[in-house]
Amino acid sequence: xxxxxxxxxxxxxxxxxxxxxxxxxxxxxxxxxxAGCLYDEEGKLFTYKCVEKADHELTAAQKAAYASSPxxxxxxxxAVCDFVxxxxxxxxxxxxxxxxxxxxxxxxxxxxxxxxxTIICPDIAWGNYKVIAAxxxxxxxxxxVYDLDDMFRKIASVDSKIFLVTNSPxxxxxxxxxxxxxxxxxxxxxxxxxxxxxxxxxxxYIDYAHNEPKKYFELFNDISDDLLxxxxxxxxxxxxxxxxxxxxMIAIHNDLSFLDLYENLCSRLCRSTWSNLNxxxxxxxxxxxxxxxxxxxxxxxxxxDMLKRRTDIFIRQAEECGLEYYKFxxxxxxxxxxxxxxxxxxxxxxxxDSHIYxxxxxxxxxxxxxxxxxxxxxxxxxxxxxxx
Length: 388
Ligand SMILES: Cc1ncc(COP(=O)(O)O)c(C=O)c1O
Prior knowledge:
Elements: H1 16-26, E1 31-32, H2 49-56, H3 60-64, H4 74-85, E2 93-98, H5 100-112, E3 118-122, H6 128-135, E4 139-143, H7 148-156, E5 162-166, H8 180-191, E6 197-202, E7 227-234, H9 235-238, E8 247-252, H10 256-273, H11 279-291, H12 293-321, E9 333-337, H13 341-353, E10 356-357, E11 359-361, E12 364-368, H14 374-377, H15 380-387
Parallel strand pairs: 1-10, 3-4, 5-6, 6-7
Antiparallel strand pairs: 2-8, 7-8, 9-12, 11-12
Helix pairs in contact: 2-11, 4-11, 5-10, 11-12, 12-15
């Protein structure tokens, strides 16, 4: 097409989420279960007091300055890396700041995959993986999130390099988390492949998970030389920092000289893409982690409790009234199970007609309990069942 590069993807980009979100926001009396952000019990976006306090303490110069390097300020990279890994990874690793978790996924895809390569993703997943695959002219294969044998079959069907995406715990939209035993099976399988493999662990929501969500990081201390583990870290969720566009990419590998090269080429990619990142945002995160840690942990724990109360009651009532949902462990969303996408579309429309705003996903309807106060969540499952 005129003006555009040879392989530009000219398919029209339509963001289905934002159109429903807009409708939900316009309907003041409706139930808005569309958002991907945590809201408080008053229906306002949840923000951390300690984050606000740290932000207020920044100087005008800190707010105005460029960051110190394209790969992020050193103190930010260290603080975030320590916060995420919690000392569980003794294997070699590097950390590069990114524009949210999305930026970390972008860095790994851009640096590891050629056009025509395959990206292997969960079958019910965050819609942006598809957009990223299309944008980079990648083939996309999907695996059943709940069936590791299916994951392994899909991996085995790829001739070229393996690029596997996982989103556990708090999978968006299913809320599923692999157990430690399941992680052991995954890492054992990948270790035994003897073939170049990139494992992208999207841990965007990990801070809201219960039951030792980071224990599986220990498994990265014993990986094959053919395996590169990349973690996509999001400050959007961890610090309610959605609009600040901060995150990090942590790469783990046995060979330090490769990681040195990898960090360097990621720095160049950062420089050529966003040049550098949000300097005040990085200072705020460092301050929170280094100076207000206790307050942060307390606020985070309260936020997790608030979310869990909502998901607990929704699931209990869904069980009581026979509303089918996908197996859930933790997280911002619960997803209703739909036989097929035709039925899903009908149910979704009926819910819209009843002023309940939700998001359609493959073979399901995502209920964003992160944005629905407890008082509204109580009874929501029954209401949906009746409408259906
Ligand atoms: C599964 C998943 N991964 C990654 C992200 C990235 O978020 P951000 O780029 O805001 O950090 C999101 C955001 O909604 C998500 O749902």
